[in-house]
């Protein structure tokens, strides 16, 4: 079983990603779906390159949003949801 804190999420290939004012719109060919990611989900999605762990993504979010603590639980939950929607591996 993978430790969700040290997991290195990566985007599914062949997604069409477009930036919008309040996040991202992601077009998925198979299954054919359109996803609208809010700014928080978009931040996690954009940093999911396979190079960073979920802990590192949470730390990047802490710095970017000037939070007191890294939002690790929120990032883990977001990664889990993006995987359920077949946007991350």
How is this structure best described in words?
With 89 residues, the chain is α+β, with helices and mostly antiparallel strands. It has one domain. Helix content is 37%, strand content 18%. The chain has a three-stranded antiparallel sheet. Strand 1 (16-20) and strand 2 form a beta hairpin. Helix 2 (54-64) packs across helix 3 (72-84). The longest helix has 13 residues, at 72-84. The protein is globular. The model has no long low-confidence stretch (mean pLDDT 93).
Outline:
This protein has one domain (16-84).
Instruction: State the strand order across the main sheet.
Output: 1-2-3
- The assigned structural class equals alpha+beta
Q: What ranges have pLDDT less than 50 throughout 5 or more consecutive residues?
A: none
Q: What is the residue-averaged pLDDT? A: 93
Q: Which range does the strand content fall in?
A: 15-25%
Distance between the amino and carboxyl termini: 15 Å
Radius of gyration: 13 Å
Fraction in helix: 25-40%
Count of domain modules: 1
The count of strands amounts to 3
Q: Shape, please?
A: globular
Tally of contiguous helical segments? 3
**Largest sheet descriptor:** 3 strands, antiparallel
Topology diagram in text:
Elements: E1 16-20, E2 23-28, E3 33-37, H1 39-47, H2 54-64, H3 72-84
Antiparallel strand pairs: 1-2, 2-3
Helix pairs in contact: 2-3
